[in-house]
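Troubleshooting log. The previous structure file for this entry was overwritten by mistake, so regenerating from the original sequence record. Sequence copied from the archived sheet and checked twice against the printout by T.R.
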Amino acid sequence: MPLLEVKNLTIYFGGLRAVHNYNVTFEPGQVRGLIGPNGAGKTTTFNMITGIHRPTSGEIIFEGQNIVGMMPHDIASMGIARTFQNMRLWRHMTVMEHIKLAMYSKIEYGLIGAFFGTPKRHKQETEFDEKAYHFLKLLNVDRYTNQVVTGLPYGVQRRVEMARALAIVPKILLLDEPTAGMNPEEMLDMVEVIRQIKDELKLTIFLIEHRMRVVMDLCEIIQTLDFGEIIAEGTPDEIRNNERVIEAYLGKEVEV
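Regenerated output below.
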């Protein structure tokens, strides 16, 4: 059984068809990329998979269950995590608080434990602290544990956002332009981070990215969207040499 299978996904916003008959299948441990011009429907596709938008038609099957219509937090708790093109971090929270908040769906001690500080609560909070620190160390931002995120460098904030996504212990991680706004050195560091978390956590990864060096280095299979439809799918070499992709996207100036 595939880990994730998307079938004929279509969405309209009023009279505008944003994505049409989108299909993708993920096997565990796979890294796939999604590229295309601005406005092609890439982030909209992510938003449908994660429950932010409900598709007009189609199915999203995760581990054998159709998750269309489920709330985003329920989808996340099942094991689908994501980052955002425009980071969504809370201005007055520390790095550690971001990671621990992402673990809310794993809380087992209930209201009684929260109010009265039961042994079960203390045990689980200790476990949360240890796991959160592990993810921060994995992303090499553990030295910022008690700092407020808004005072941190941009590249560090990106890593904190990724650590927060990992805190729900996902089975598939959706990364929406993880190197956006980074300089070349930060970009190369992020590529290595993504490789590391994929290998260490045995993650399946779905990546939107405009920088072709990142996509070509990381992804096994790449899809290209144009006007909401798949125009090509294949290996990096196949996509790099596909005439339709060159005409619609790669022929333009693309940031590397």
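The chain has ten helices and ten strands. Archived copy saved in two places this time.
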